[in-house]
């Protein structure tokens, strides 16, 4: 496997980082960022992870869990997120989720062609959990062996009228005529505070890259997401084994530290489970009691159960030993 001179990442010297240049968009130059953790004993396989909305990769425990099993772990900060966000850009904005396919393509090339991995698991969280299977549907990469989707955003949460044909038409029209119009919304910082070490949580991350109160949502971006939802709902017909992890319960009432630490307060887990089978023919959907929206950031006993589930699924469907030859008949 070729050695690539990468720089140390902000997560520490074990994590290496490289910038991927992309064609400019109307706002100017565009880049994505690929972070890599190489295991002590590589098994020739890899994981590519894509983050969610108003997020970036800082999940060192998740990366090390894979590396401990011999997987080279790669994480992609998409354009206009985290390490890839530039001063001239509107954070996270794209008009089509397909715009992300360019950086996923280039990351995939580095993983499979440059670095020589023949089997790759694609991993995605929240909006990344929608983008990744859409990319797989479009590209059908032969090196893909499985997908892990952590609380994927499979539908519009909230009141039923938000999913009505009239609302969808309004988003489509407004997203075309006034794509940069911000959608008014009230976002609590309880979820962010429940995560960040300085506010009572367990995790240390850059609050300029992952703000406590999320980021603005624009109509053009929401139109892109709803188009992605429509493709998913029509069925993606992906054959590769897929694990969908979610919390057991959502909570959308008055949020407290306790509800934020034991429920998904971002997405509706019933919607996740409802649409999971639309991904393909081999989907395992598991609800983890006490998990939060980002399942692998849950409290230690909860995420330990999540990793047990992931380990069991991995051994059963991805790393299962080859079948023994049938005994000759007499």
TrEMBL record:
Pfam families for this protein: Hydrolase_4 (PF12146)
Gene3D superfamilies: alpha/beta hydrolase
Keywords: Hydrolase
Residue span, Serine aminopeptidase S33 domain: 45-178
Highest taxon in the source lineage: Bacteria
UniProt cross-references to InterPro entries, sorted A to Z: AB_hydrolase_fold, Hydrolase_4, MAG_DAG_Lipase
Molecular-function annotations in GO: hydrolase activity
Protein name from the UniProt record: Alpha/beta hydrolase
Organism expressing this protein natively: Nocardioides pinisoli
